[in-house]
Every structure is written in C-alpha cells, then in structure tokens.
C-alpha cells in the first residue's frame, strides 16, 4: 500500500472526528476531539512529505489538550513560538507559511475562554488549511477542511445566530 493511500485513510479518520467535533456545545469536548483528529492529520501530512504541516499537527494534538486545562496567555504565546520554530526548521515554501498562519488562528481560538470566538478562529484557520490542502492536492484533506469549516459555521449558526430575539423596528411617525 502506498504512502499516499495510507495518508488518505488516516485523514479519513480525521474527517469523521472533525465532522462531529464542531457540533458539540462543550468547548472542552471540541478541543479533546480536535486533539485526536490532529494526531491522525499530522501522520497524514508526514506521509505526504510535508514536515511543517505534519509536525504542527502533531504538536497541535498536544496543544489542544493543554488548552483544555490552561488558558493562560503565556501558554498560547509559547505554543505559537513552538509552531514558529517548527515552521522555520522545516520550511519548504508557501505551504509552510500558509500552515503557520492557519495555526495562529487555531491557537488563538483554542486558548480563548469564549466559545463563539473559538468557532470564528476555527473557521478562519480551517479556511487556510483548505487552501493549503488544495495546493498540496490531498483529496481527503481538502474534504476534511471543507467539512470542518462547514461544520464550524453550522455550529456557530446553531448556537449563536438562531433563536436570537428579533428587535422590533422603531415606530415611524407620519407628518400630518
């Protein structure tokens, strides 16, 4: 079995986990699910000879678990620094830059206390990973990010855009 085929099987596991993760309401459950999905996604990228993305995702697996327990800004900054070191030491071009910028959004969101902000940052980061995967041409990886971004938006819509009270329009006064 080729490395490419194995990578697509592993990223299918990521797909299944991420499809359900963003529909969860509890932020810690979302982060735990994303931790597991990042592990499989990281191996997927390493099999595709993408060391920056692979190591960033393997580190992200740990980072998501850490962010469940500790929301300190210094931990977020340390995580961003580690991701930057990974990017610099494994730099292979545009894909490394896109992956790092995507990781900035996801990291900032994962250390936030605000679920709404987390979802918005996941949408931004996921969109950049989608672009990354298009350039790399990893078909299931493209599908993963398309579903992740869609699911994130649906979760955001369900929890933050529906059931909002509609403000009545101010009365209009006609001149007699």
From TrEMBL:
It comes from Thalassotalea piscium. It comes from the Bacteria. The chain crosses the membrane at residues 6-22, 29-47, 53-72, 84-108, 128-157. Keywords: Membrane, Transmembrane, Transmembrane helix. Pfam families: Imp-YgjV. InterPro entries: Uncharacterised_HI1736/YgjV. The lineage of its organism: Bacteria, Pseudomonadati, Pseudomonadota, Gammaproteobacteria, Alteromonadales. This is YgjV family protein.
